[in-house]
Fold:
Amino acid sequence: MAEETMPSSLRQKPVYRFAPSPNGPLHLGHALSAFLNHDMARDNGGHFLLRIEDIDQTRCTPALEQAIYDDLGWLGLDWERPVRRQSEHFDEYRVALDRLIDAGLAYPAFLSRGETKAIVRIFEAGGGVWPRDPDGAPLYPAVDRQRPEAERAALLASGRQHAWRLDMEKAIRAVGVPLFWQEGGDGERGRIEALPALWGDVVLSRSDAPSSYHLSVVVDDALQGITHVVRGLDLFHATAIHRLLQHLLDLPQPVYHHHRLILGADGRKLSKSEGSTGLSALHAEGAAPSDIRRLVGLL
Ligand code: GLU
Structure:
């Protein structure tokens, strides 16, 4: 039955989520995201969930997590409990990772950040232009992907630290059809073709964290029944990776709304270290929640 011909009682309620990482204080950009998710859920009779994206246990702290609850509470937002904390679900991400490994679509990556940088630097010093992803980061070198199986097994057996990376070319071949997503945000809209190849062999789990942003986000969006992903335009192109992983892991696809970014005085995206736009700093200076709505252009 088409969604619009369904009796309203049978229609699935939309589910939205705000998914901050507690690795710094929330700023105006987060406020815009949180307000939009909350307001869309309210206006469409849906659910508003909060997810704490704390897989990076070296940078995320309980105090910063508490500050998220305090800031959102101050803004007058209310979310459904329990809150999903990614650090409590590493086993679920591992199941997804194992599925990709078993399908031959992931490989152990042994290069450290420094080694990767050195390979790129040497190549570019020789006059070459190393390919970069849409965020400007160099693509991961092919050395680990091309490593002979016996060498790979020996390195794993030796206990050498490693990440797991997606073999992008193989993954795209395994999907076999072009992928798209439905976009209703502030940038390009409509049916967008996903171009995951631009990202190269993305990381699925890190040597210092048992998952990655990309893997956890698709697993969680599916497990939480998220129907609408509303987040900043800085994640527009990464959606291609999410669509690919959703397809490979048989996960449902939400619709997407990538909203405009709040820029700092220098015209750049706000960063978590920018005190002047931090929500708790604005609160301490006497701002009211309505001032925050006005500052992010919602009033
Ligand atoms: N945790 C991400 C961030 O704080 C957001 C991820 C998402 O909404 O998909 O930027």
Remarks:
- Residues 28-43 form the longest helix (16 residues).
